Amino acid sequence: MNGNTIEVHFMHPRNSSMNLTADISPLCTGEEALEELMRDEDGTGPFLPPLPDGQAYELAVRKNQLAITQSMSFAQAGVVDGDTIDVRQTATGGTIASRPRLVRPNQ
Question: How does residue 74 score in pLDDT terms, banded at 50, 70 and 90?
Answer without folding.
Answer: very high
